[in-house]
Automatic annotation (TrEMBL):
The lineage of its organism: Eukaryota, Metazoa, Chordata, Craniata, Vertebrata. PROSITE patterns: CYTOCHROME_P450. Transmembrane segments: none annotated. Belongs to the cytochrome P450 family. It comes from Anabas testudineus (Climbing perch). It is found in: Membrane. This is Cytochrome P450, family 2, subfamily X, polypeptide 9. Pfam families: p450. InterPro entries: Cyt_P450, Cyt_P450_CS, Cyt_P450_E_grp-I, Cyt_P450_sf, Cytochrome_P450_fam2.
Amino acid sequence: KPRRPKNFPPGPLTLPVLGNLINLSLENPLKDFEMLRKSYGNVYSLFIGPKPAVVINGVNAIKEALMTKANDFSGRPQDLFINDVTERKGVVMVDYGPSWRDHRRFALMTLRNFGLGKNSMEERIHGEIKHIINTLEKNIGKILSPQVMFHNAASNIICQVLFGTRYEYDDEFIREIVRCVRENSKLANGPWAMLYDSFPMIHNLPLPFTKAFRNVEKLVIKLVNEHKKTRVAGEPRDFVDCYLDELDKRGSDGSSFSEEQLIIYSLDLHFAGTDTTSNTLLTGFLYLMTNPHIQERCQQEIDRVLVGKDRVGFDDRHNMPYMQAVTHEVQRIANTVPLSVFHCTTKDTELMGYSIPKGTIVIPNLTSVLNEEGQWKFPHEFNPENFLNDQGEFVKPEAFMPFSAGPRMCLGEGLARMELFLIMVTLLRKFKFIWPEDAGEPDYTPVYGITQTPKPYHMKVLCIIHLNTVIK
Ligand code: HEM
C-alpha cells in the first residue's frame, strides 16, 4: 500500500496497487480534483497507482512551484506512457536538462526567424485564413460543422513553419496525420494510458494503447522522409531544413541533435500547435454564436478600427481592447490544457511548507487558476469584462495562465496568440455566425483530454456586406 512520506501534502486514503485511482473519474477527473481541493487545500497529494503525485492549485501555489522554484519543479515524469510513445525524446516530454535547454533555445530562435518572426508569420497565417474564408463562402446561408476546418487550418499553419508546405483540407496525407495525432492525444490522457503507467506487465499485450505506437511510426515515415526528398543543404526553407543544417554543423557526436530526435520534435511541435489552437477557436465561436451581443460588439470595434484597411495586422490589437478582451476570455473559458503538461520534481524540495521528494509527479491544475474565485470579476461565466478595467482598457490579470508559467511554459505562445487574434478578427469582420434555430440548447461541457474539445456543434454563416472597403 503506498504511504505518504513525512511532511508530504495531505490527501485521500490510498488503496493497495491502485493508490487513489479509485478517487478519480478516468473519463474526466477535473471535478474530483476540485472536490479534493476543497477537502485538502491548494496543495494535496494523490497516488496514481503506486506513484506519488502532488496536485497544485491556485495562482499563488502554481507560481511558487513553476516560477520561484522552477529548477526544482520543471522536470517531466520520465516513465509515463507518453515517454514510451515518444521514446523518451521530443521537446514536450523531455526531462529538464541540457537536451531540453539546447532544443528549446534552438526552437525559439528558429521559430522566430522562420515562423514567429512577425511579418513572415503573419503572412503565413493570412495565407491560411484565405482557405478558411473559401470554405465559409461556399457555405453562406447554410449550416456547417467547423471542427475539421479549424483543425486543418491550425495544422496547416504549423506545417508551413515546420515543413514549408500546407495541405488541402481533403488531402489524404494530412487527414491521416491529424487523425493519428488526435487519436494519440485522447489515448494519452485516457484510462488505458493510466493502466499502462501503473502496470508494466501489460506493456507488451495487444491492448488499445499499442495503436498509439503504430501511429507514431506511421507519422515518422510520412512527415520527415517525404520532406527530405526536396531538401537543399544550406538553403533552409523551414524548421526541418534548419534542424538538418544544424545537425550537419554539429555532427552526430556529443550533441543531443539527431534525425530521430528531429522526427519526434517535429511531431511534438505539430501536436502541441494543432489541437490546442483549433480547440480554442472552436470554443471561441461556440460562445460568440450563443452570445450575439458580444459578437456584435466585436464587429463594431473591428469595423471602427480597420476602416479603410484591407486586412488586420497583429499590431492592430493595441487599438482593439474589446477584441483583446474577447480572445483572452475565450482562452480562459476554453481551458484548453486543463492540467497543463505534468511536471516532476528534479530533487527533494519544499512547497508551501510541505516536503516533496525528488521524482514526484507534479500536476499544475490550470483549471483551478482560470476560474479561481477572487482572481476574476466573473470566474464562472463567459464575460470579456474579466479583461477590461473601468475605463474599458484591456488588462491581463496574473491568473491568466492558459500557457502555464515559468521556463517550461508554452513555447508556441506567440504563434498561438497571433493565430487566435488574426483568425477571429478576420472572420468576424467578414461573417456573422449564428447558432442554428433547430440546434437546441448549447452544451458547453467540454470533452476532457490533454486538450479539451467542445462537443461537436454546427454553425450558420452569413456574409457581412461592407460598403467602401475591399476586404481581403
Ligand atoms: C491556444 C494554444 C495553446 C495553448 C493553450 C498551449 C498550452 C501549453 C501548455 C499549458 C503547456 C505546458 C507548459 C508546462 O509544462 O508548464 C505547453 C507546452 C508547450 N507548447 Fe503550447 N499551447 C498552445 C499552442 C502551442 C503552439 C501553437 C505551439 C507550437 C509552436 C506550442 C508548443 C508547445 C511546446 C513545444 C511545449 C513544451 C515546452 C517545454 O516543455 O519546454 N503550443 N503549451
